[in-house]
Specification:
The protein is α+β, with helices and mostly antiparallel strands. It has 2 domains: 55 residues, no CATH class; 83 residues, Immunoglobulins (Immunoglobulin-like). Strands 4, 7, 8, 9 and 10 form a 5-stranded antiparallel β-sheet that branches. The protein has a 3-stranded antiparallel β-sheet with strand order 3-6-5, with no helix packed on it. It contains 1 helix and 10 strands. The N and C termini lie far apart (85 Å). It is elongated, with a radius of gyration of 33 Å. Helix content is 18%, strand content 34%.
Length: 154
């Protein structure tokens, strides 16, 4: 055998080895698609059609617990106002979802259910967005104004 044929044979073996490694890597990344069947918790599943057996353990899933909401009453005194609503992080800043009702003597009030946590809000009086003058805390908002802060304990 000549020196050239030995070199060619080595290159061929190297190329074959690299291809084999790539095939093994590709097989390791391959995901077998099998038809989903309901599985009892902790039951082992081995897809019969897969070339490589894959063991899956299904853990029991806890039911989603509903977060308790607290009733919050908001009030604003604004004589002469034609409409008053409240918009905030608790209603996706949609004032139409939380209109307040006239309570007499220029007072407007309403109750809403809010999850525990820290919520920012504003009153919307005849289309004008205003902070709550009775809020215990305010924060600056990205529009150059202030948002009122409502803290609901859980």
């Amino acid at each position: 055998m000549t020196k050239t044929s030995k070199t060619t044979e080595k290159k061929t073996k190297t190329v074959k080895a690299v291809k084999a490694v790539k095939q093994v890597e590709a097989a390791a990344k391959a995901v077998a698609v099998v038809e989903a069947t309901p599985v009892a918790p902790k039951q082992k599943v081995v897809p019969a059609a897969a070339k490589t057996a894959v063991v899956v353990e299904a853990a029991p899933v806890a039911p989603k617990q509903k977060v308790a909401e607290a009733a919050v009453r908001l009030e604003l005194v604004r004589p002469g106002a034609k409409s008053v609503a409240v918009a905030g992080s608790f209603n996706a800043w949609k004032p139409e979802s939380t209109p307040l009702k006239q309570a007499g003597n220029g007072s407007w009030s309403g109750s809403l259910k809010v999850t525990p946590g820290r919520h920012e809000y504003l009153f919307v009086v005849d289309g004008q967005w205003l902070p709550d003058p009775n809020a215990k805390e305010v924060v600056t908002n990205p529009y150059g104004g202030c948002n009122s802060v409502l803290v609901v304990n859980g």
